[in-house]
């Protein structure tokens, strides 16, 4: 007789079971049935070759088969189905994938597999083929891969290939396969914002060589393609070089209109610069495909603690994106400067075994190639200092050292980018740390900070890089430490920071934005920040001051903020801006030109 249990006892002893290997076991079982040709209920025929399978397996992997077997289609009741337009090789690999989740892709089968996967809507296999093709990319096959990507409508791969072709246009235009580019492909390459790593004059020459290669056929597309040239980036001397070249002479001999098309476009572009062909490439070989961006460099973030991450946001965009990471143990209080759109991050300190270590090492980031290189270390390790760029030389001013935080052996030193070496320059009148600095012309201005007695200073000092001398300028209106300073239009703008009240010893967080006119040598207060803060960062872009992050005062004392507030120097108004994703402090900010076409945008 079967024993019985009360319902309450059954509930107490019940438990939920889930097998960890059920999915793999199910797949193994289906694969075994398929290999033994058991319970197969459909035969697929491709290129005359037959493949037996289970409808339910095909439908689970392919929306194409799911629709075929579940809707009122004639194939729903057929035992044998002809698959037209796909190869037996492709279908065979897809059926093997359906039963094993595995696929071997190589150069011999990738197009067959891609063709079948695209036709049968097996999306993971399409993506796998796309990534495989991307991994095979080189200068010799990029046009073949582009044809495949456009044939099978692979937008991410197309984007990647156009970026690659732009970055290698100089080399590509010298190869025979360059002439296989269609007019639409060349227009897309030039019209959209893909970075191009050669001079715009060379881009014009490449276009002219493409036109003259088959002038009778390509002449009808010439005007539209020539309109894609960014003539404002071509100087008079560069144009004269093009005019004297054999390609330009040949095309002018056979089609005289081309000269007027190019020349009129150049004149229109130059006229916007008051008839002077001033070519500002922002330190880039070619600015096309780049846009100005605010870059946040490292610091402390509430979500991550100390971080080496760099984030960027294009002007006009409200989205912050990850850019790169400094190739060093997580650090803070370094110096940063931009030279010819290269970002230098020098020095700083890091924690190890609960000890703070200051280091002298430097790194240089190229946003065009998304690469870091190391630079020669400073003569003296330092942190909490100012790093400024004058005439493509970097000047490290003041700061704290390893052994004695207020006695840096080499108070100031200079880095020569050309020779990758440092040398000592004239020391500051008083060594400072946690100061702010900015460059006007060939002068470096440094203000505020903490002196050797831990006193918050109001001094403004000026270093002349030509004479290697320091002079004192009128003091700031209030003492400041952990503040920000930027230069714009011959003026210095100082914001935020703190000082200690002489009576109470309490820390006062400053909200004033003061301006120093380097010509009249006078200070004025121009505005008050909506959010007083210190250990923030500030950059100026197109006449707008952006103040980012930092510490402010909250109900329970100091608290970090992610606020970004923008002050228009022209309109004298504050506006809220796109906040940083997390609270941050002790970071730096700069302005760089970042490619609009980056891997984080489409892969």
TrEMBL record:
Keyword Repeat: yes
InterPro entries for this protein: BACK (IPR011705), BTB-kelch_protein (IPR017096), BTB/POZ_dom (IPR000210), Gal_Oxase/kelch_b-propeller (IPR011043), Kelch-typ_b-propeller (IPR015915), Kelch_1 (IPR006652), SKP1/BTB/POZ_sf (IPR011333)
Repeat among keywords: yes
Pfam families: BACK, BTB, Kelch_1, Kelch_KLHDC2_KLHL20_DRC7
SMART domains: BACK, BTB, Kelch
Domain BTB, first and last residues per copy: 40-107
Keyword field: Kelch repeat, Repeat
PANTHER family: KELCH-LIKE PROTEIN 32, LD33804P
Protein name: BTB domain-containing protein
